[in-house]
Amino acid sequence: MSLEAFSHSEPLTLGVELELQLVNTHDYDLAPYAEDMLRLMKKVPLPGSVVPEMTNSMIEISTAVCHSASEVLGQLTPIRDALVKSADKLNIAVVGGGTHPFQQWHERRIYDKPRFRELSELYGYLSKQFTIFGQHVHIGCPDANAALLMLHRMSRYIPHFIALSASSPYVQGQDTAFDSARLNSVFAFPLSGRAPFVLTWDDFGKYFDKMTRTGVVRSMKDFYWDIRPKPEFGTIEIRVFDTPLTIERAAALAGYVQSLGAWFLADQPFTPQEDDYLVYTYNRFQACRFGMDAVYVDPATGEHMPLREHILMTMDRIAGHAAAQGASNAMHLLRRETEAGQNDARWLRERQRQEQLLAEVSRQAAQRFRGTPA
Amino acid sequence: MNELFGFWSQWLRPSAGLPTVQWSLLLAAAAVVGYLCQRHTGLPKVVGYTLVGTLAGLAGFNGAVWPLQGIGLFLVELGIAIVLFECGGRISLRWFRHNPMVLVQSIAESALTYFAVYWTLVWLDQPTQVAGPLALVALAASPAVLTRVVADTRAAGPVTERAVVLATLSTLYALTLGSAWSEQMNRHAATLLDAISPAVVVLGVSILVAAVLTLVLRMALRFMSPTSENTSMLLLALIAAGSTVASHMGGSAPLAALLAGILLKQLNPRPWAWPRQLGNASSLLTMLMFVLVSTVAAQADWSGPVAGAVLALIGVRLVAKALGVAIGNVGSGASWRQALWVGCAMTPMSSIALLIASQFVVASPSTGYRIASIALPAILLMEILGAVIATVAIYRAGESSKPWAPLQRGRAGESNES
C-alpha cells in the first residue's frame, strides 16, 4: 500500500479531537457506556462527530474544520452540552483528564469493532493500558512539503504542549510524580515517539514504502508519533496533549498551535535540523515529569532555561499572530495560568490534597467538564 | 477411663453451645460449596450457599425458626439492611429528574407484577386475603442476590446499574406496602384514618430512623475518610443500631436502611468507598443471610396444588417484570435488548420476600400459613433460579468483566484437541 496523496486544506484551519472518560456516578470508576452514549448522541444534530475509542469506557468527540480557537470552542460547547445531557440520562458523568486516576486496566473491555479487536490481539495488555485520554489538534498546511516543515518546527514546542495540557498525574490510584504520565503509556508502542527527519513528501513516501515493505506498517494509523502528517485531511496532527479538564482549555491549546503555525508560515523563523532531536526526548521527559517546573533545553543554542519562561517568551513572540488569528483570549488564558505555574495536573493534585479521595477528585473534575464549579 | 473423663471435665468451660457449632459448620460448608459452585460452573456463589441451606432445611436442621424471630430475624434484617443501605446509595434522585422514564419503568414493572400475580392466584382459586400478600411478596426483586451476582461476575454497565436500581425501588414499594398490609391484617378499619394509619406508622418511623442515621453519618463523614476501616465499622454499627430501633418502634429496619442510603446520597454527593471497605465482614453476613433464608424456605410443606400455584406465580412474575421494564423502556435511553436483560436480572427473590412473608405469618397465623405455603417454595426456587437467570442476563448483556469460566475451559479444551 503506497502513501496517499496529501489533500488540500486551507492553511491554519483547525480540527480538534478529544478523548473523554465515561464514569459512573456511584464510585466514579470508569463505566462501559460508550455504546449507549453513541446511540443517544446519534439523535442530536451536532457539528463534528462522536465516535468510539479503544475501550468501552471511552468516547472521542471532534470538531469539524474550524478557523479559530473561538470557533473550536463554539463547536465544542454544543457537543459538550449534548454529552452532558446524554450522560445525565444514563446516570453517568463525562470527565476530561489524561488518565482516570484509579481505574484498573485489567477491568477494561475492548470496544467491539474490528480494528480495536485487531489491535488488542497484536498489543495484548498494552491495548487495555491504552485507556488514556488525549487531545489531538489538526492544523491545515498549504501543501505536503510545508506540512513536513511545519511538523518538524512544531516539534521544538512539544514540551510546551505537554506542560500546558498535562492532566494525568495519577495512574491506578497512585501519584506517579509525573504531570503527564499518559505519555509513558504511549511510549510502550513500537512506532511511537518522533517522526523521521524528512522534509519533502517524496522522501516521506520513500520512508513509508520501506516501512510497508517490512510488513510492520499498513497505513499512517500504525504510527503513534507525537506529531504525524494526516494526508487525507491535508493537516499535521499533534498528539501529545493530555485531554484537558475543560473544553475552554482545549480550545485555547488549539489557538496556541494555530498561532505558532501562523508564525511559522509568515516569518519562516528557523529551519528545523536533525540535531533538534538530540534534546527532544530529554525535553519531552522534563515536561512530562515536572510540567510547568520543567527545564527546557533550547535545541538551537543548547541553553537551559525554565520551560515556563520559554513558554512566556514564545507567547510574546507570537502575540501578533495570535491576535490576527483571533486567538488573543486563548493566549490570555494560557498566559495567566503559565505565570501562576498552574495546569490541570496541579489542580488535580490540589483537589486530592484537600479531599484525600481520588473518586471525589473525579467527581469534581466531572463538574468542571460540564462547566459547573466544583 | 472414668478418671480420664473426670479429669477432662475439669477443663470444660461454658461456651456458646451446640447451635453455634452447628451454624459455624453449616457456614463453613456453604463457603466451600459456594466456592466450588463458582469455580466449576461459573454460577454465582449464592447458588452454592442456597443449596447448602436447602439441604440443611430439608434434612430437618432446626437452627432456624419459622416465622423468623429472635436472633435469626435480627441477622436477616441486618444483612438486608446493609445491602439495602448500599443499594439506596446507588439511587440518585437527580437521575429520575433527567430520565423520568426510569421511574415509569419501575412503577410499571412493580404494578404489573402485583396485579398479574394477584389475578393469576385469584384465578387459581386462592382467596383474595392470600393472593394480595403473595402479590406483594412477588413484587420485591432481590437486590441482595443481584449485588452478589454482580460482585461474582465483576459486572458493570447500563443493564447492571438499571437492574440494581429497579430491584431496589421494587423493594422499597414491597417493604412499605408489605409492612403496612401486615399491620392492618387483623384490624377492622372503621375509618380512612384507621386504614392508612399502619402505613403512616411504618413509613414515619422508618423515615425518622433513616433521617437520624443519615445525619449522624453525614456528621461523621465531615471528619472521617470514607476509605477508613473505622468509617466502615461505624457504618455497620450504626446500621445495626438503626435496624434494632426501627423494628422496636414499629417501623421497618430494611426500609429505614434503604431510605438512609438514598438520603445520604442526596446530602453527601461524595463518592462511596464503603462497599470495598466493608469487604469480608459484609460478605460473611450476606452468606449467613442466604443460608438462613434457604434453610427456612426449605421447611415448607410441598404438595401438588401448591406446586401449581408456585410455578404460576414464578412464571407470571417473570413475564410481568420483563413486560413492565419493556413498557417503560421507550425514551429511557436503553435498547430493547438491554430492557430484556434488565427484566431477566430482576427475577431473583430472596430475603426481603421472606421477611415480608414472615410479617404476614406473624400478623395472622391462619392466613399467614397459606401465604407461606406458596411463598416459601417460590422464594427458595427463585433464590437459585433467579441467580442463574440474572447471571445469564449479565453475561448476555456483555457486562461481566471476566469470561464465563466453564465456557472458557470448554474452548481451551476444543483448541487443545484440534
Which secondary structure elements does this structure contain, and how are they paired or packed?
The complex is a heterodimer of chains A (374) and B (418).
Chain A: E1 14-24, H1 34-41, E2 49-52, E3 58-62, H2 69-90, E4 92-95, H3 114-123, H4 125-129, E5 134-140, H5 144-154, H6 158-165, E6 170-171, E7 174-175, H7 182-187, E8 192-193, H8 201-214, E9 224-225, E10 227-230, E11 235-242, H9 247-267, H10 280-290, E12 295-297, E13 304-306, H11 307-324, H12 328-339, H13 344-355, H14 358-369
Parallel strand pairs in A: 8-9
Antiparallel strand pairs in A: 1-3, 1-4, 1-5, 2-3, 5-11, 6-7, 10-11, 12-13
Helix pairs in contact in A: 1-2, 2-9, 6-10, 9-11, 9-12, 11-12, 13-14
Chain B: H1 2-9, H2 18-41, H3 45-58, H4 70-88, H5 93-98, H6 100-123, H7 128-139, H8 143-153, H9 158-184, H10 192-223, H11 229-248, H12 253-267, H13 274-297, H14 304-327, H15 336-345, H16 351-363, H17 365-396, H18 405-417
Verbal overview:
The complex is a heterodimer of chains A (374) and B (418). In chain A, strands 1, 2, 3, 4, 5, 10 and 11 form a 7-stranded antiparallel beta sheet that branches. Chain A has helices at residues 34-41, 69-90, 114-123, 125-129, 144-154, 158-165, 182-187, 201-214, 247-267, 280-290, 307-324, 328-339, 344-355, 358-369, and strands at 14-24, 49-52, 58-62, 92-95, 134-140, 170-171, 174-175, 192-193, 224-225, 227-230, 235-242, 295-297, 304-306. The termini of chain A are far apart. Chain A is of the alpha+beta class and 374 residues long. The longest helix of chain A has 22 residues, at 69-90. Helix content of chain B is 78%, strand content 0%. Chain B is built from 18 helices and no strands. Chain B is globular and about 80 Å long. Chain A binds chain B through residues 24-29, 31-33, 36, 39-40, 85-86, 88-91, 107-109, 112, 355-357, 359-360, 362-363, and chain B through 89-90, 92, 94-95, 98-99, 102, 154, 156-158, 161, 225-227, 269-273, 275, 333-335, 398-399, 401.
